[in-house]
Design brief:
The protein has 2 domains: 176 residues, Rossmann fold (3-Layer(aba) Sandwich); 124 residues, Orthogonal Bundle (Conserved Hypothetical Protein Ylqf, Chain: A, domain 2), CATH 1.10.1580. Helix content is 39%, strand content 12%. The chain has 13 helices and 8 strands. α5 crosses α6 and α9 crosses α12. The protein is of the alpha/beta class. A 6-stranded mixed β-sheet has the order 3-2-1-4-6-5, with helices on both faces. A two-stranded antiparallel sheet has the order 7-8.
């Protein structure tokens, strides 16, 4: 690998849709959830481990999580770099989170997801609102909250399968954000004691703090690709990996050297993967084959979302400054 070039210090792309993405069903869902709180015993907040800080919705803490026992689940740890797990958990607790569980729902033997029900019951019983005279309640009601596409419905289905031995999907699951459109009825996930979980629509922040934070949400597929532009999402991925001195993309996309130019990457991907499409010349004449750079951008972003570029924590820049040892590991990782 030749000398590493200079890279951009900031990411300039922005759009009103990126900074103000708050679909109507989500605003309504938040109001309904607030009304449901009276009958809820506890709250499970699910979040993407690749963005443990950036994606959190401040409305949860203000209106929901502060009034009931609150368990914070960092999901998708199979895709996230958790080498600084202790620092991540420490910051979350500093921000008010009391209990954190890490889950990988792609692993059918994931032990953490099996502990959620018992952990939640223990938190409820030790809470100040628990009725001490009622030592063995006949049932518990839990509310699952989280921004879109972080695995809320998948978690409910896993818990249900583990504790009731029922297969299938009781809660709708999809790869696109916003699949759970309304606050649903309770789903029975445990028999003794009976535990019901209420699924909820993902609620994104009504306003992200800055462009980089919004792009992190887009890269993790929390904001629809078409709201931002898949080419911009791909460009942000390149920008972020360069800034983190993470050059694993060079090998993944068969490049000669790191680059700060997204067009170079997309053209290389399109050529190597034979990604073309037919276009009609404006001046007339026969159809022509051209590189399909939009599909190349999708190919690039999918590599990140599937974990094929390696485990990445997009919020590592919000943790304390890296030590010399950490930087050395980053440089070694790029070779």
């Amino acid at each position: 690998m030749s000398q590493i070039p200079m890279f951009r210090e900031s990411f300039q792309h922005a759009s009103k849709e990126l900074l103000h993405w708050f679909p109507g069903h989500m605003a309504k869902g938040l109001r309904v959830m607030q009304q449901k709180l009276r009958s809820m015993d506890g709250i499970i907040e699910v979040h993407d481990a690749r963005i443990p800080f950036s994606g959190r919705n401040p409305l949860f803490e203000d209106r929901l999580a502060s009034v009931r026992p609150h368990l914070f689940v960092l999901n998708k740890i199979d895709l996230a770099d958790m080498s600084r797990k202790d620092e991540i958990v420490s910051r979350l607790k500093y921000e008010g989170v009391t209990e954190v569980i890490l889950t990988n729902l792609k692993n059918g033997q994931d032990k953490a997801s099996k502990e959620i029900v018992s952990k939640m019951i223990d938190m409820i019983k030790s809470g100040t609102r628990f009725d001490r005279a009622m030592t063995s309640p006949s049932s518990y009601n839990l509310l699952v909250i989280g921004i879109p596409n972080v695995g809320k419905s998948s978690l409910i289905n896993r818990i249900r399968t583990v504790h009731t031995k029922r297969e299938g999907k009781a809660a709708p699951v999809g790869a696109e954000p916003g699949v759970t459109r309304a606050v649903q009825q309770g789903i029975l996930v445990n028999i003794k004691p009976k535990v019901y979980i209420l699924d909820s629509p993902g609620i994104a922040q009504p306003r992200v703090n800055n462009v980089v934070e919004g792009m992190k949400l887009a890269l993790c597929n929390i904001i629809h690709d078409h709201k931002v532009g898949i080419d911009i999402v791909a460009d942000f991925l390149l920008f972020y990996m360069n800034k983190a001195a993470d050059f694993r993309y060079v090998k993944a996309f068969n490049l000669d050297n790191p680059t700060d130019k997204i067009m170079e990457v997309l053209v290389k991907i399109a050529v190597d993967q034979n990604i073309y499409h037919k276009v009609k010349p404006v001046t007339g004449g026969p159809w022509m084959e051209k590189l399909n750079l939009e599909q190349a951008a999708y190919f690039m972003v999918r590599k990140f979302r599937s974990g094929e570029l390696g485990k990445i924590c997009l919020d590592s820049d919000q943790l304390p400054t890296h030590t010399t040892a950490t930087l050395s590991r980053q440089r070694a990782r790029s070779r």
